[in-house]
## 1
Amino acid sequence: MDMLLNQYYLQIAVFVMVNAILGVSIYLTLSTGQLSLGNAGFMSIGAYTCAILTVKAGFPVYLAIPIGGIAASLMSIIIGFPALRLTGIYLAIATLGFGEVVRVIVLNLKITNGALGISGIPTLGTKISKMLSSFGLPQKFGGLSVQQTSTLLVLLILVLILVFLVFFCVRLNRSRVGRAFAAIKADESAAEAMGINTTYYKLLAFALGALIAGIAGGLSAHLTFFIGPKDFAYHRTVEILLYAVLGGSDLVFGPIVGALILTLLPELLRSASNYRLMIYGALLVTMMAFRPQGLISEETVRFWKSKLGRGSK
Amino acid sequence: MTLVLDQVSKSFGGLAALSNVSFKVTEGEIVGIIGPNGAGKTTLFNLITGIFPPTAGKITYQGKDLLGLRPYKVTELGLARTFQNIRLFGHLSPLDNVMVGAHCRTKAGVWKGLWRTPAQRKEEKATRERAQTLLKLVGVEEDIDSPASSLPYGQQRRLEIARALATEPEIILLDEPAAGMNENETDDLRLLIKKIQTMGKTVVLIEHDMNLVMNVCDRVMVINFGQMIAEGTPAEIQQNPLVIEAYLGREEG
Ligand SMILES: Nc1ncnc2c1ncn2[C@@H]1O[C@H](COP(=O)(O)OP(=O)(O)OP(=O)(O)O)[C@@H](O)[C@H]1O
Ligand SMILES: [Mg+2]
């Protein structure tokens, strides 16, 4: 038990969860066919808003995180109005530029502490273990240390958030708004001609994606003691995009699986760390060549449904 | 008069796709628009539905100016269309395609969709049932789980009509619905268009299939090189020397 629940594994599991949440964020923007590369920027806004609120203004974490998400989504609406007139590669470039602008602003503002970043952020883990101690929990509880218990609880919180987000996306898909998203993704001008206000729904998807990226940013700020502008540079955006490229973006499970694989892979490849990027590259080129729709697509689901359906008869 | 075009022109760069076209569509009629390839028929639909603005002229619907309205607004007002080059939402099921059409007549937003409130469930049920009725009307099987793009060509054209009808239009604009259909399918289409008329809707039909046009339309307009060269009943059009020369004659010769 102790072997499995060692701090290192738990930490990785926590990162998998945060990245899976980021996967949901890219899924939502992609669900109207918008290739937005602004997610690291929105994550950064969420993380900094949240960290400043807790460290400098003494806000409780559970309030600061949603506020960070809302700040990111407000920003997405502001930049979305002009940016969503662009499509395809132009939108990608504009949003990538947005991410860089956020990084440079963060680097130069006093309140964000410039290149030094913000440190001494109260982590969720320590918050929870303090709470546990104040409830009079003994140092060892059911064979687990307080640290393990609190990390497990953090993990549980993250799992619950992810489960809720998946629930949200699945419900959305089978609703009027989800159908509008899918129609826009399939053929934007036909969707508009069928009575869908495409600007509104594209902006909605963009803002939902930013909200979730902002929340993921706030969460990640409170999982480590420190955030700096480097954490949200464009490599982060590329990483998030890769979740969707690898896992597929037809279904919400795609980017989640992508996040799982791409977060675990570097840990598994630690011994071959010199070749890590090469292996990444090879993996992606292989995907592009043989399965451009990603690991999980609608056809995959259809295939297994019919297969399992037939099997049970 | 529901739909009125007044001296409408459209040019693309130097090319005058339409020049000074005027016509009126009366409630409940089936109007045919014919003309050789490249005459400007589809451009006319694009102007009416707000895909792009005319270079000059006025388009009104029930007295309301359509100029400057985005396409979805035009659809909300009660004009729906199909496309000459089929533009279904290919990976969605036929039923979902039609349900998308009902978008502008329904309300549930993100919140109601998330929690499936009683109002949302009622709306979804009504939307689904209506979509199924429309699929039945056009003759596409209702419970197909495969994507719309896998349907045979003729079915896809019919599905587009069902999707347009789901927006609850008063005027439906059909752009070459018989293209690629065989004789039997075209005959079914004729009956369908008649049925749409009896549902109280106005139909504007662009079509190359003369047999269909002459059999189904109350009135026919002929466009050639962006200009309206004739207008009248099918019988009159068939007699019109200008039309015979510009269009029918070419086919016969
Ligand atoms: N978006 C556009 N940009 C530039 N030129 C266009 C555009 N749309 C149409 N045209 C041109 O306008 C003219 C009329 O085209 P339109 O599609 O309206 O013809 P049509 O009568 O529908 O022909 P068909 O019977 O082949 O469908 C053509 O010369 C076409 O090339
Ligand atoms: Mg045409």
## 2
Amino acid sequence: MKLRWPSVTRREFLNTLFTGWFIAFFAACIYPLLKFIYPNLEKEPDFVILNAKDFLEIPNNSTKPFPWGGKLGLIFKKDDGTIHALKGVCTHMECNIMYKPEERKFYCPCHKGYFDQDGKNISGPPPRPLEFFEVRIENEKLIVSKKGVKVEIPKG
Amino acid sequence: MRFQRVKKWVLERYDSEALRGLIKKKYVPSHKYEIFYYMGGLALFLFFIQFLTGFALALYYVPHPEQANKYVVDIVTKLNFGWLFRSLHHWGAQILIGVLFFHCFSTLLLKSYRKPRELLWITGTILLGISIFFGLSGYLLVWDERAFAAVRVATGGAGSIPIIGQYLKAFLRGGNDVTGETLARFYAFHVSILPFLTMILISLHVLLVQYHGLSVPLFLEGEKLRKVPFFPNVLYKDFMIWLFVLGVLVTISVLAPPEIGKKADPYAPTPEGIKPEWYFYFLFQTLKFFPGEIFGLSGETIAVSLITLAAIFFLAIPFFDRKSSRGEKSRTFTWVGVCYTVYFLVMTFLGFVT
Ligand code: FES
């Protein structure tokens, strides 16, 4: 059957066509754009391997920094000479912390947060204790790993 | 003679009659509170200075984590007048943000946001937000310890916004942490994305002011007010204020060049007593009030959520304040305005003294 007049005008047809075209075009652009501007997130390392020599010698009741991924890690020797490792980043708003040997506490200068020697948050705003790692010494290497991560280094 | 010929040449290509007509027709109401009318113009002038000094600095600055700090030092120590441009850019930003807050709060208290000027309020408030982000991103470009810590805290705070926080934080930082990627991103924001948005919003804002004319305070509405021609009376007053502020700006810039700290080092402990720029004090102080944990929820998340809500409400005030829109007195919103203003002032003050 032939219609006597078309059900849409030529203008309506073109408007619909171009609107659809625009929407499709932008929709197709948006996805890659969002994907592009959102960064690739690198994961924090599971472990790092350090030269034991550089860290075992530090005096009792002191810390020495090491790079934990892009973040600050601290090797910490307690009064009794035991070696510990922790992430040197405050659990409140991620400022780098420091050790105050006289008070035997870790201290975050950003909002005056304090942690005790075991990393427990004892005063100020930090909501959680500091993250401690596992430390192992093997063939002159100091292996610092996340709790529960097994690290095997191949011999030689 | 020459000039006449040039003028004729131009007029043959563009007849400025319509424009001149507009300028002649532009009148500004005159009354006790007219001083507030000059804040917008002053902000415009200061934006202009930021653009000019920014252009100059951008010719030499390089956003690389190893060199950025050194380049800033070089700009102020080795280049001719580099110290002046950096100082002007720094202090210009401080004054500009101050003027914007003043402009914003006076609009709020005089309820000039009421119908039909809602869009002016919205574009203006967004411009204020953008300017603060300008400040934060510019601050990081110096790439010293303090800026590094401040941006870590600020972007970390953005991470506490419920739901979108983590994405926002990663987007702002360009990764999990503040690194060279963040510097690159903030540079892009500071010199291309934000200036572009600023231009668009300022154009809209100014266009709307021309369209609606200046708002007269509610309590003066209906009174017979004298009208003063914009050109030249008001414009001359504008110039006077601009000249004065320019004088103040140059004086401060010469006498008090901003410091440049030690190069940022992600492995160094945060320096003692860091504070953000003053226009973050009201946020910074708010965060301080919240304990680390409230009923098992992170205090920070609660604080940041409240701040976000307060900001959204602030933006939407013209739509909630129906009474003012109808031209009636609106007590509630007078109080709302006073609360916001007083809160801001008190917190900023506390930030300075603690
Ligand atoms: S970031 Fe450490 S106390 Fe706030």
## 3
Amino acid sequence: MLQVDGLTLGYAGIRVLEEVSLRVRENTVTTLVGSNGAGKSTLMKGIMGLKPPLAGEVRLDGIRLAGLSTSEIVARGVVLVPEGRELFPKMTVLENLQVGASLGGDEARKKRNLATVTELFPVLGRKLSMAARNLSGGEQQMLAVGRALMASPRFLLLDEPSIGLAPLIEEQLMASIRQVANELGLGVLLVEQNAMLALEHSDWAYVIELGRITKSVASAELVDDPSIVDAYLGG
Amino acid sequence: MQIALNILSLTSFYMCFALGLALVFGVMRVINFAHGEFYMIGAYSAFLCVSLIGPTTGALPAYIVSFAAAAIVTGLLGVLLYLVVVRKLMDKPLTIFIATLALSYMLQVVVVELFGPVGRSLPSPIPGIVRIGDAILPWSRVFVIVAISTLSVGLWFLLMRSDVGRRVRAVAQNPTGAVLQGVSVTRVGMMTLVAGSMIAGVSGAIMAPIGGITPFMGAAALWKAFIIIIVGGIGSIWGAVAAAFLFGTIDTFMTVAGAGRYLALTNAVIMLGVLSVMPSGLFGEKE
Ligand SMILES: Nc1ncnc2c1ncn2[C@@H]1O[C@H](COP(=O)(O)OP(=O)(O)OP(=O)(O)O)[C@@H](O)[C@H]1O
Ligand SMILES: [Mg+2]
């Protein structure tokens, strides 16, 4: 289990997260719902050790991650697909995936991961030798998710993974994420523009407002909550 | 034939030397002004090795040992440069620039004190000549061509085909993306700096028997590397290779035509010419 306890984070003295606590379990998709600027991306950076906390901690299976570098956190199986993708533009699709697999285990494991990724996103499989920057926006988004899966994550943090995807592909991606989570026993923490869609494909949900967690409920329940529907789910 | 082989060896040398510098810059955004002196130190390591053990082992084994010696000496210098200068000043590129400039002068002075300011020449690694087709080449030249092209092809494969090479390119293209995939940017940075230094040193040892050596040879080599990187396009590996070939060819023909003393001038004119037409170099990114 990935566990965030009382995490407080800020930029240049301004607090962005106030004592945030949440849990991400294996084999489940957890959605983080919140409006722009609520602190969702900041929370994910905090989990990855990209921003030192002012207070609180992150634990993986009960072990504190404080003091570990981001690459050490990745090595322990927590991987982020960041806002803005952060691909290697001049490298091919395959090379992007191979870098993703740097800490992904032995050769057999890497082969299996590559098969999983190309099955999930067949278009990547067809364009393995194309430079990443020549992919369409949606394909680049798929590559970012695929690259993260190459690292054999146990916990996958997805920051708006379906940005730029056509509605049909978006729907497919959400379904695939659920499927991959179940097949590989992954714990997924998901932030999505289309919160309604994300909730449909997730098990548990947290609502974050101005850097504080204000709700923690089963996704199905949140979908029926009128105040939430008004605020985040577009009525 | 002879000209083709000369182009090959000069291109390989330019490629090794310029890529070492370009990789360090690409990965760490640091310009190592002492890169040329690492090349010079490599050449002097070869000189020492060949004068010390050459008489007992023969010239060829002494040269081969000298490559390892050059790699070790410049590799250690690279480690030292990283630990003493780069690590502490990581976010102050201008200070690193000045510090490596200082290191470059220090190394020159040290070599002048140890070996004198006058240039030296090294004995031929293999005596005699060889006929290849209608060309007559000294064996020593063949030796240099084989060694330097092996080094450049090896470097190319390491960079483009190995896991380590992919990680180096990943960090150069997007450090944030690389960190998020578990690549340790500091480790890759240190490795690149040390490897770049070693490549400069080994190139110096390889090239020493044909060019002769002086304590000031690094400056000219560094200048050439800058021209290659800028003409090729900053940040482009293909560009650096293409520009290395361009200048390898031009310099060979000019030397053959007896116009060697105009090399620096011509290179500079070509650089300015290319930049005026293509401001980001032949293969550079348009900003
Ligand atoms: N580098 C930064 N420096 C200063 N403030 C920042 C920085 N990054 C984010 N912030 C601030 O932190 C707050 C939370 O930002 P964050 O990116 O975490 O929001 P978010 O929930 O991901 O929003 P969105 O849905 O728009 O992606 C915002 O008020 C933002 O202005
Ligand atoms: Mg965000």
